[in-house]
What we know:
The protein is α/β, with parallel strands linked by helices. The protein has one domain: Rossmann fold, CATH 3.40.50. It has 8 helices and 9 strands. Strand 1 and strand 2 form a beta hairpin.
Amino acid sequence: MLDLVDECGKDLADCGYETVELGKYNATCSKLFIDSDGKKKKYGFDKGHYYILNAPLMFGLMDEHFEFLKREIKKRIRLLFKLNKVKKSDRFLLVGIGNPQILCDSFGSRVIDKIEIKPFCEDNNIFKISPNTFANTGINAYEIVKLLVEAFDISVVVLFDSLMTKNLARLSTSFQFNDAGLTPGSAMNKFGMEINKESLGVSAISIGMPFMISAGDISKNYSKDIILAEKDLEEKVEFSSKIVAEIFNELLETDNT
């Protein structure tokens, strides 16, 4: 199981996804709803609603893509909110998963840095944190999130994470999101703990983008332990994290005045 549990190395149709064209920039959106034990067993995914929005031309036409992608992603995040009965007045914990010191793993922390909160207001209902990685802290992200959910009476957890992909075509071009949660670090180790509604007791929505791929998934001549990323990554991580942060700033309508 990779970081975000909707990842699929094969053609998405083989994983049960239905894909529609979005009408511009060759962008598509694939969706998969796992609503029964039969589907869970068939496709190997936990129950939930999964989306993969793929924009293969995104970084050739960055500025033109920005509002288009923001609108399309926001539409589907709103749907996840509705399906999970999430309200703007709920108490949100926003979590940036990953290592902020490693560029290809910094998407989550960069989103968190750009999301606005109102910590000095008495009615503040939005909290955010970047817990870093187990390798740097010795603490599983799940344990930190669980403690904060209980301490701050959190209603909704939103997780942002850099992902790995098995498909080169989705590297740095796929926004992936679901309401089934994720398992931090599971692409590279076996000891990650699932962060989801079942483990937390509250709704857990995840959003990420794959910025890493195993060398072994590109060629059988290389080890799967070698992790690759694109060399022109700075602009891509920054651009993608800005889109996602603006979506959540607008959805939560934070006001620091």
